[in-house]
Amino acid sequence: MSILCRVDDKHVPLYRVMWVAATPHFCGEEDCLREGSYEVRLEQDESLWATTAERDNLVEMLESWQGGLGPADEQF
Ligand SMILES: [Zn+2]
Predict the structure, then answer these.
(1) Residue-level pLDDT at 73
(2) How many other CB atoms are found less than 10 A from the CB of residue 1?
């Protein structure tokens, strides 16, 4: 199976995902562009913002993912 998941305009390798928000973002700021989106936290303090459908898909992929870095293996 693919280890890439589409979030926003990016294909994200599953092994880079630290956590996925369980509830939609709300900070109360009037001009917030992220309200209603789900935060997807990546390594190195990067965040992406997923729609509900993207979040559901990502969580499903993470749950069935067996781990491993895939063919383009990176060593840390
Ligand atoms: Zn906000």
Answers:
(1) 52
(2) 9
